[in-house]
């Protein structure tokens, strides 16, 4: 059907149905705002379709196979065979269930859903081009708009994602076979999560990283635990090398790298995964027509309510400058923006933003490190509990890593935490909650924790900071 260019109106237009946009749309509709959500690809955005969810599904499969095949010391003898295409189908089933749920929730909350690509006509209207050729377009006029168009993978010179051996993270998550040899360019969190996953699935993995360590942004003792485990899994890591290109060989491909001094190295592979980061999607929407300007990397600047320089246009999620590109950040920003449109006195508070890395072991962080606290003028006190002293960690056979709690010595307020170890992504929630509630070390230490659990390590780290730890020596 060919649809002509008709104009409709909406109180709030949300562009992009990722965790920033769909959450904003639902919250706005819950507040009685006439809301339209436009999406050009798939409900749930990068997170549900090509990011958080499929990667965690694959990690679960890889962990299960690896654990089962490596439990000899417990008397378990197994040699699991992974059917990659079946694992991929299972993962896709999980994704479909969740994306279908997002669509249903939007409809049930009264959000008008429009499929198509939005471009600004001016600061109060977009033109939405529908689907394929001949599908027509429509103009939607809005009082308020939330830009939630997310991010895309960064492509580097010499590595074209259109070439069959060159993988983006999205290609890696769609793989139906495990490459024998995989070179991963980039030792950030996506690169390391996927390196670990493919190593556990049987690939021979090499990581090349321009910096001198994996996981930039995390403290060196935290990254060290993950690096050591990656080495034990057989992942070969090379630092201070930038990937410069690749060429076909009789047997697979050859990936070339270069150091700062111009020294060249070569690594044989069957696939090369490029995971060097993501850039915001703000260049395909004619934002200038709405009076908006992105910075030189494409990010939009916003105030504490997520308003851009054009006051009735908000931005949330991966397009926003100076906040981490994480799904829960996008969702929180979406809620703040939607509630602000509804007239509520809200602001985005970055004090207790947790982050997790689903490597082996996992990392969970929130708030300040000890160095951050010092820089902010606190006199920090730090408590630590190694997982090797945790009964529950030993019974799961995963006892690498530690819980560290950072607090203000004078007031006892918890300022931050760094966890590297089993279930760190779950455990960090307790400390995010502690910061959010203004809890002190005493509050965390005196809360009765179930035994035997990994969460006891959180309590014990707080006790350690107070000089009262029972199961580890006090500092
Ligand atoms: C492999 C991988 C693993 C990840 N793992 C995690 C994790 O474990 N935890 C975590 O917190 N984060 C993770 N992330 C990051 C997370 O996916 C993003 O931070 C999150 O999706 C950002 O949400 P968003 O709503 O800003 O954008 P997106 O999720 O990117 O959604 C934006 C949506 O906007 C649509 N869109 C764009 N332009 C237009 C337009 N002009 N018109 C209409 N629609 C448009 C897009 O199609 C897309 O659906 C991961 C990312 C990747 C790639």
UniProtKB/TrEMBL annotation:
What GO terms describe the biological role, i.e. biological process, of this protein?
A: 2-oxoglutarate metabolic process
Q: Give any GO molecular function from the UniProt entry.
A: flavin adenine dinucleotide binding
Cofactor: binding comment: Binds 1 FAD per subunit.
Q: Give the EC number(s) listed in the UniProt record.
A: 1.8.1.4
- Required cofactor names: FAD
What does it catalyze?
N(6)-[(R)-dihydrolipoyl]-L-lysyl-[protein] + NAD(+) = N(6)-[(R)-lipoyl]-L-lysyl-[protein] + NADH + H(+)
The yes or no answer to whether the keyword Flavoprotein is present is: yes
Question: What are the residue boundaries of the FAD/NAD(P)-binding domain, all occurrences included?
Answer: 11-334
Domain Pyridine nucleotide-disulphide oxidoreductase dimerisation positions: 353-462
What other comment is given for this protein?
The active site is a redox-active disulfide bond.
Please identify the protein, giving its name as recorded. Answer: Dihydrolipoyl dehydrogenase
């Amino acid at each position: 059907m060919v649809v002509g260019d008709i104009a409709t109106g909406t109180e709030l237009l949300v562009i992009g149905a990722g965790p920033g946009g769909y959450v904003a749309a639902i919250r706005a509709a819950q507040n009685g705002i006439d809301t339209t959500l436009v999406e050009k690809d798939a409900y749930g955005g990068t997170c549900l379709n090509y990011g958080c969810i499929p990667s965690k599904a694959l990690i679960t499969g890889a962990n299960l196979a690896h654990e089962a095949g490596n439990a000899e010391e417990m008397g378990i003898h197994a040699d699991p065979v992974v059917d990659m295409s079946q694992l991929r189908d299972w993962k896709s089933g999980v994704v479909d269930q969740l994306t279908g749920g997002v669509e249903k929730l939007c409809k049930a909350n009264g959000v008008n859903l429009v499929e198509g690509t939005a471009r600004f006509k001016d600061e109060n209207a977009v033109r939405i081009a529908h689907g394929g050729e001949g599908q027509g377009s429509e103009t939607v006029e809005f009082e308020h708009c939330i830009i939630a168009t997310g991010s895309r993978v960064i492509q580097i010179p010499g590595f074209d994602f259109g070439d069959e051996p060159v993988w983006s993270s999205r290609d890696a998550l769609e793989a139906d076979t495990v490459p024998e040899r995989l070179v991963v360019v980039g030792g950030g969190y996506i690169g390391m999560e996927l390196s670990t996953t493919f190593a556990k699935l049987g690939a021979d993995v090499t990581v090349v990283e321009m910096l001198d360590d994996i996981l930039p942004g995390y403290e060196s003792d935290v990254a060290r635990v993950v690096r050591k485990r990656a080495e034990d899994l057989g992942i070969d890591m090379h630092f201070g090398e930038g990937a410069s290109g690749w060429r076909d060989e009789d047997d697979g491909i050859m990936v070339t790298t270069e150091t700062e001094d111009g020294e060249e190295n070569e690594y044989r592979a069957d696939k090369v995964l490029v995971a060097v980061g993501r850039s915001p999607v703000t260049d395909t929407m004619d934002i200038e027509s709405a009076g908006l300007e992105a910075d030189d990397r494409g990010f939009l600047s916003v105030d504490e309510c997520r308003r851009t320089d054009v006051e009735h246009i908000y931005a949330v999620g991966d397009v926003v400058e100076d906040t981490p590109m994480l799904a829960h950040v996008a969702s929180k920003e979406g809620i703040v923006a939607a509630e602000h449109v509804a007239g509520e006195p809200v602001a985005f508070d970055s004090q207790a933003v947790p982050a997790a890395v689903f490597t082996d072991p996992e990392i969970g962080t929130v708030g300040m490190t000890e160095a951050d606290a010092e820089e902010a003028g606190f006199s920090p006190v730090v408590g630590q509990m190694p997982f090797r002293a945790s009964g529950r960690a030993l019974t799961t056979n995963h006892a690498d890593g530690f819980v560290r709690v950072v607090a203000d010595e004078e007031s006892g307020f918890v300022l931050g935490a760094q966890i590297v170890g089993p279930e760190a992504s779950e455990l960090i929630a307790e400390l995010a909650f502690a910061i959010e509630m203004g809890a002190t070390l005493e509050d965390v230490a005196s809360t009765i924790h179930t035994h035997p659990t990994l969460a006891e390590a959180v309590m014990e780290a707080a006790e350690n900071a107070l000089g009262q730890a029972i199961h580890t020596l006090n500092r």
